[in-house]
Amino acid sequence: MDQFEIVGGNRLRGAVQISGAKNAALPIMAAAILTEGETVLHNVPDLADVSHMQKLLPRLGVKVSREESGDLRLRVEDESNCHAEYELVNKMRASVCVMGPLLARRRKAQVAMPGGCAIGDRPINLHIAALQALGADFDLINGDVCLRAKRLTGKELFLGGPFGSSVTATANVLMAATLAEGQTVIESAACEPEVVDLAEFLSACGAQIRGHGTPRIVVDGVEELHGAEHTVIPDRIEAGTFMIAAAITNGDLNLNGARVDDMLAVVDRLRLIGVNVERTETGVNVTSTRRLEPVEITTQPYPGFPTDLQAQIMALLCIADGNSTITEKVFPDRFLHVGELGRMGAHLRKEGPTVTIQGVKRLVGAPVMASDLRASAALILAGLVAKGMTRIDRIYHIDRGYERIEEKLAGVGAEIRRVSG
Description:
alpha/beta; UDP-n-acetylglucosamine1-carboxyvinyl-transferase, Chain; 2 domains; four-stranded mixed beta sheet; 28% strand; globular
């Protein structure tokens, strides 16, 4: 099993190219199930999760090929199989996004209950209830969600959950509604840029969608969708992670492709901490040479501070001058990284969904274990500034969401290498 070895203390300087957004690419790939003809996707990141989707879709009759340029070509060749089996679905939660397209296009979807990171309970009851409201019959058979419908019919749906709007539920219902008869109104829809990107792709395929990017999306169903050419948006979570990498090392990084407008809550908190964030013609420049100030942060659905950057900014606040608090409102149990940061000398106290961080003068290298994708990134960030060597185990988590992160970091001055454990 691979590990990362990091020797901290180097100031990061240079330019990093931000890759395409995993959380946009995966549902867009699934949406190809809805279409006739060829779809070409640009800026699709080369990640473990994308690779899993590339293995799942051919099982569902979709031919997928990656060109030398990195582009993906997708075309439906066989519509007979509607079963997304456990052996692939359990490796990646985003596999659940095939449910809506299969049901809408083939009138049947049998999808194993999804897997993914250990970040707390993430039920899919919202997906199922919404698809039932559109006309699907539901059953649970041997751990598979089974949905059937002779025809989906548009309805007014409410997708608000106990911790806010669901991104994957919004994506699933949005895709299903494109081929439903009549009009579907999605209230309390997720507003994330990744949902907007999916809607833009579907619109390019012939879907009639308006309101995406707001809490109310209106979809007028059409008879069919065709393939399209589409460029996936840059990954705002990768961009945020490298912003924090610049901050934690007192560095100077140009993040090419980063879109400031997609991450204003992050920029706001970083500036309060004492980080300089400036737009450039190609993306954003991040520098940090000042004393780091403590802040209060509460994660929220977009446009609030993203839960997917909670662990990373916690690593930064571990060396701020004072006491900070982070409250997790999206996944209240997403704190497995707290103990590992403590092994590196951080002073952290968890009480329910809130962690209090007492800044220390320095972190120290230690052997640590990644528990999930974003926790892995937090431990890398801590390792970049820690004294001595940090060894991170279970780094397969980070390969799910960051494209060649060790190469990008080494390219701007980090002392990091991948080794076989």
